[in-house]
């Protein structure tokens, strides 16, 4: 059996890990889009033949894990895609949105390429490809084994990173022996405000583990709501400015709405407009409401008391593009929450462009942003940023709240892995992280007793 790493290898986005059994069966774990600057050509070629892939197992709906599935289908993949029902519901919204964004962005990319004398890039996929991909998705319940062909058994366990997110356990039977492979997906946090605690998972021989925050601990946040309220008061009340929050459309946006809903119920939230400026976020919130089975007891108790954790006075869900433009042109103090979380696409990018040079604007970053993204540049403290090909001076205040991060830090990831006997794990492969962070995470894992920890390079193939 071999594993080959075609994405998220010494980088964060583009998650793709291809397993080939001794009999030649190919199983793809995730099929994500590379995101950030200079990733256009990376997304054009897989490095393997999609028509040769027999099965796919999907960890969760974020675009850096799903965003190339329709292209996989366009180029010949016809097999089943196993994942949770909540992930399928979210993919319908998120992949359709991705197709539309790419169509718009491709025109701009090709104009720049033509100016440089480079050939045009083709569209990665369209909405028809998305529909075909959705038709190949098959729902799987947590903690119930399922067959993947004749030689592999799969098991999905709750990763608590996103609604419907799963870690993937595979038991592969070869030549009378079994090999047990575990893929963490993205590891959630034990104190998520909406989702349940991550599940334990069966003992593994080999582990593919994410590394996003492998070098750090999240800052202690004794009162997340008080911190958020302070930022709202300073920006929107004292300075009469706009608070812009790039947030992933699923889970991070709803977690913010839930926090603001609580502040409103307590009578603390100023009477200012709060806009959820994204058709996808509107649909995702409805999907969240439909999957309360994934919620933790705390928010379920709040919903029983309040009636709805995602609705309060002055909150407005915005789908219409003309209304979004009106918000952009308005000078009134307000809160605007919109994807993408890395500020690389969508309406939030326009809001930042129009307000980043205003000192009474605050841009609040509440999740991971890759270094080569707009969110990463703002988080790093760059004094100038490039937005839609133009340079802008950063006069806006940039704030960071790690308490909203959906990725576990190294202590939380070690806790997640504590159900394993490290002496029985032959190799841990580190993916989905920047290399310098992976080096630190490797040391942490070795200190916890994992004897062999490897950091594979892009397209590296390993025989098990």
Q: Care to describe what's here?
A:
This protein has 13 helices and 22 strands. β17 and β18 form a beta hairpin. The protein has helices at 63-66, 69-74, 85-115, 127-135, 224-238, 252-265, 279-290, 297-306, 321-329, 347-355, 374-380, 410-417, 435-447, and strands at 2-7, 16-20, 26-29, 55-57, 81-83, 137-139, 146-148, 152-158, 166-174, 177-183, 206-210, 242-246, 274-277, 315-318, 334-338, 362-365, 384-387, 390-393, 397-400, 427-431, 453-454, 461-463. The relative contact order is 0.14. It is 32% helix and 21% strand. The mean pLDDT is 94. It has a seven-stranded mixed β-sheet. It is of the alpha/beta class and 464 residues long. It folds into two domains: 2-216 and 406-463, Ribonuclease Z/Hydroxyacylglutathione hydrolase-like (Metallo-beta-lactamase, Chain A), CATH 3.60.15.10; 224-404, Rossmann fold. Residues 13-227 form the Metallo-beta-lactamase domain. It holds the Pfam family RMMBL. Keywords: Hydrolase. This is MBL fold metallo-hydrolase.
Helix/strand layout:
Layout: E1 2-7, E2 16-20, E3 26-29, E4 55-57, H1 63-66, H2 69-74, E5 81-83, H3 85-115, H4 127-135, E6 137-139, E7 146-148, E8 152-158, E9 166-174, E10 177-183, E11 206-210, H5 224-238, E12 242-246, H6 252-265, E13 274-277, H7 279-290, H8 297-306, E14 315-318, H9 321-329, E15 334-338, H10 347-355, E16 362-365, H11 374-380, E17 384-387, E18 390-393, E19 397-400, H12 410-417, E20 427-431, H13 435-447, E21 453-454, E22 461-463
Parallel strand pairs: 3-4, 4-5, 5-6, 10-11, 11-20, 12-15, 12-16, 13-14, 13-15, 16-19, 20-21
Antiparallel strand pairs: 1-2, 1-22, 2-3, 7-8, 8-9, 9-10, 17-18
């Amino acid at each position: 059996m071999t594993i080959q790493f075609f994405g998220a290898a010494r980088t964060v986005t583009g998650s793709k890990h291809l397993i080939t059994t001794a009999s030649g069966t190919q199983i793809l774990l995730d099929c994500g889009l590379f995101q950030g600057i200079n990733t256009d050509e990376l997304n054009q070629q897989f490095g393997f033949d999609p028509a040769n892939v027999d099965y796919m197992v999907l960890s969760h709906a974020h675009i850096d894990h799903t965003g190339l599935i329709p292209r996989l289908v366009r180029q010949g993949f016809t097999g089943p895609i196993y994942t949770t029902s909540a992930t399928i519901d979210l993919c319908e919204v998120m992949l359709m949105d991705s197709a539309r964004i790419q169509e718009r962005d491709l025109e701009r990319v090709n104009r720049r390429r033509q100016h440089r004398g480079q050939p045009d890039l083709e569209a990665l996929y369209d909405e028809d490809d998305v529909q075909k991909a959705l038709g190949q998705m098959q729902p799987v319940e947590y903690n119930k084994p399922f067959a993947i062909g004749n030689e592999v058994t799969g098991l999905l366990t709750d990763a608590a990173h996103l609604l419907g997110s799963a870690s993937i356990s595979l038991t592969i039977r070869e030549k009378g022996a079994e090999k047990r492979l575990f893929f963490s997906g993205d590891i959630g946090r034990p104190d998520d405000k909406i989702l349940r605690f991550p599940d334990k998972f069966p003992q593994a021989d080999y582990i593919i583990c994410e590394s996003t925050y492998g070098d750090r601990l999240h800052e202690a946040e004794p009162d997340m709501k008080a911190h958020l309220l302070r930022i709202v008061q300073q920006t929107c009340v004292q300075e009469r400015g706009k608070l812009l929050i790039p947030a992933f459309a699923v889970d991070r946006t709803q977690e913010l709405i839930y926090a603001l809903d609580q502040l409103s119920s307590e009578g603390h939230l100023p009477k200012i407009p709060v806009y959820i400026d994204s058709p996808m976020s509107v649909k995702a919130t409805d999907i969240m409401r439909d999957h309360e089975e994934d919620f933790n007891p705390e928010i379920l108790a709040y919903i029983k008391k309040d009636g709805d954790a995602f609705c309060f006075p002055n909150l407005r869900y915005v789908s219409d593009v003309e209304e979004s433009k009106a918000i952009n042109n308005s000078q009134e103090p307000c809160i605007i929450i919109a994807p993408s979380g890395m500020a690389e696409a969508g309406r939030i990018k326009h809001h930042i462009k129009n307000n980043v040079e205003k000192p009474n604007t605050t841009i609040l970053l509440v999740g991971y942003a890759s270094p080569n993204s707009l969110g990463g540049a703002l988080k790093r403290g760059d004094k100038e940023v490039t937005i839609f090909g133009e340079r802008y001076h950063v006069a806006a205040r940039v704030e960071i709240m790690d308490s909203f991060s959906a990725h576990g830090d190294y202590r939380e990831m070690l806790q997640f892995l504590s159900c394993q006997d490290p002496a029985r794990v032959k190799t841990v492969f580190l993916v989905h992280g920047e290399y310098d962070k992976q080096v630190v995470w490797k040391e942490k894992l070795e200190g916890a007793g994992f004897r062999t920890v490897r950091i594979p390079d892009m397209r590296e193939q390993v025989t098990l």
